[in-house]
Amino acid sequence: MMNLTLRFLITLLFMLSMAPARAATILRNCFAAPGTYQTTINREFSADENSAGKIIQPDGHLVGAGQAITAQCDCPGNMTASSTVMGFAFAGSPLSAGSRAGYGYLTENIDIDIDAYTDAIHSPDGSGLYSIAIDNYPTTVPVSSMESLTSKESNETVCRSGTQPVSGVPSRQFKWNILSARLYIKSPILGQETIPPTLIEQSSACLYFGSGMCGSGDAQPVANIWLSGSLSAPLSCTINAGSTIDVDFGAIARTNFTTAGVPPVGFTLKAVNINFHCDNAAVSQYQKIKLTLTADQGVSDPGDGLIARMMGRDDIGVRLYDTNSNSVGLDGNMAFPVVLDSQGNGSIKMQAAPVATTATPPEAGPFEGNVTVKMELR
Predict the structure, then answer these.
(1) How far is CA 170 from each of CA 156, 161, 175, rounded to the nearest angstrom?
(2) Hey, which of 20, 192, 294, 375 has its CA 20 to 30 A from 4?
(3) What is the CATH classification number for the domain harbouring 134?
(4) How many domains does the chain have?
């Protein structure tokens, strides 16, 4: 009896091992072309954010604008109206490796790390979707998602006309257009950092029914997501610690004004030192900063723009000179190069003198005028 029982078990196990395994049926030629989606990031960094090593995450999902794509698979004869089609999405990035592990190169100063998402046709803002973390740039092996179910064929078909198991069913549409991103600041930006249109993520997908699953080798390209935009950080500089620079010329005899546009006889030019301090972002990029001077009351010599008008006076003005005694423009058109030390400090040294604006010496009495010092990006 023991020998008979043993032979029976062996026979049963052999029969079970020979039972055919149910395999997934991969649906082929489902998508004629991948969808193209455009998304943007436009953001101004605060001074605290705009520093090397910072990671900034834009709020919410990035939603790419573009049309849905329609499934038109070559469906086999064994598909029925009750078949449930399942699928996997795969994602990767063509970006070159960035300076930080797990990030791709975006611009000279910014790297990016992205997460793709599963089909968003029923989730326009990306809520409730499975994320696909992309950590290798460029991606050589696409990252797969969790399995996502579609409708039964009786509700939405993925089959092209002529291969549908049931007629009159609307075609299934898909949209792989959602991202999330993290920005890594390699070096602070100054002014504006443009993100040119850049292909940052590519998705593929495979559809199937039955038991089992499909792999990346069965997937077709379904989405290309492009990113563009602008990142900015305002120039933050303080001139003369925020105080007015006062220049007192003292008392001058009007008879010393002998020639229009020339300092009085015997007058010693007054030193005018313009000191400034800029934040850290400007230290390594000070070449982008320019300094200009503009007479608040305008200039007496519009062609040259060298003599600042005084308030309520047309017969006297003020000229500025650099340390080499060259005339300085006061109409806002002359830009001075700015140099900063490692602490963000800099200085421009000038000299000032009153001058008559006509061949006749100016009338006696006080005079006053203002010149605005402005620092901005080139």
Answers:
(1) 5, 11, 16
(2) 20
(3) 2.60.40
(4) 2
